Amino acid sequence: MQRLGKILILTLAIVVALATLAPALWMVSASCMAPGEASTFPPRLLPGDPTLEHYVTLFTRLRLLRYFGNSLILSVSITLISLFFNSMAGYAFAKYRFPGRDRLFRFLVAEMVIPAQVTTLPLFLMLNKMGLINTYFGVMVAGMATIYGIFLIRQFALAIPDSFIEAARMDGSSDFRIYWSVILPLCKPILITLAIFTFMGTWNDFLWPLIVLTDDAMYTLPVALANLTGEHVQDTELMMAGAVITVLPVMLVFIALQKYYISGIMAAGLKE
Amino acid sequence: MKSLRRAAYFFLAPALLPIFLFFFVPALAAFVLSFTDFDIYALGNFQYVRFVGLKNYFQLLQDPLFWKATANTFYYVLIGGPLAIAASLGTALLLHAKVIRFKGFFRTVYFAPVVTTLVAVAVVWRFLYHPRFGLLNYVLGFFGIDPIDWLGDPNWAMPAIILMSMWKNFGYNMIIFIAGLQSIPEQLYEAARMDGANARQQFTSITLPMLMPTTVFVSIIAMIGNFQLFTEPYVMTQGGPVNSTLSLVLLMYQQGFRWWNLGYSAAIAFVLFGIILAGSLLQTWLQKRREA
Q1: pLDDT tens-digit map of A206-222
Q2: Which A residues, 156 through 195, put their C-beta within 8 Å of a C-beta on chain B?
Q3: Is the complex ipTM more than 0.95?
């Protein structure tokens, strides 16, 4: 009886794993099929004669490298800038005393209930007036600093003993120097976690880049892919290749750094 | 002391300035915008903007599209949300079971859809849902189920979107549930076993109550996210067929950036904000009442 239960649980786990993997596996497989091969009945699981022609088309005819570059530039710079800004603010909230600190922090945290969509329209109008529509900077403004990031860093920095900071101050280090060479290294685990979250979040973001970027050459990968599906509805295999290229980078980052990523989510879920 | 204060402001300014400028100000401006008739003419010259009071909100109340979008969004939140949480809890329990080996491997596989790009996922699923060539109907065929026109049938389009987003998202909350399960002290189970509690009793009187705070947390976060449904219908159905997948954010987007009715669109954004706020408050209130 118990043995049966064990087998049942294991089988269930494997079935769920297969169901989870199936769409991704089929996406990769279909991306290597000849044109039209995916649209047959019964559906084909594997390409009869694997080809990379769709990938070639994407990079030569459809400028996918450009979109890839746009996504990369935006994701990397937003990650670096927001990490820098958030860590400074989080550290100040954790370790400096100044009038109104706690009230300011509570106010910030309360603002987290405002969904980003509320700010979308006026932000668009603002950027339009400032001439920042269709620029990298326009995409970046919304992510340069985040309340969530400040919050995470503050929670982490609270645990750093004051004596570390005082010792550094005794040695004559400036405030920035203390932040840079004492606090940042100590915050490394949370910085890595936040970096992965931010990188993936920006890479996968859709609504905001869709609104800000109006010129084809500025599109990020997700926006370009959504646009391509409109134009190439029939080219299933080509679309699958585009999907693979859009998903692959985040997948690789995730697999390499999943330890930090998953422990970050676990921490967020437990703390509350 | 004064220099310390100055240092604090120096550290805060780079983050607080953009947050103020690109988040608080627009959020406030959205509120003001929702009382104006801001449209394409005003976009060219702000002088054309007029205050119209609550006109946009009254107009919303009479707009069948708005009610359709609200109903669709609630459908997605109230049906899709609990289903997704049940899937997360189920898989968390599955991976928490002692018999499962290679836990790390399974966890990674289950989690993988979470990090994939939603647009790419939507592109792939749109084809999996294809009425003739799609893999899903093919698999269902083995069970004797007739082909379903998933995205073309108004009755099936929203369930199809719910199914896809369940697949995409269950891993995230699963991880939080696993963390919750791991934090339940083993002694509780030992004590229960000594009192002669069977597996089912242990589950209903220890595991479930101990997971309650996690479940509330997860439901609030999931609800907030689910109310913002946009990318799935935008890429897969454009809100169709016959508006059966038109969500509030998609309506906001269409009104704002396709028809340039920015005032009207801001009113939709604020109604959405009000709904989300009310939902979060309701859930925390229910939780407090249960504890009291």
Answers
A1: 999 999 999 999 999 99
A2: 175-176, 179
A3: no
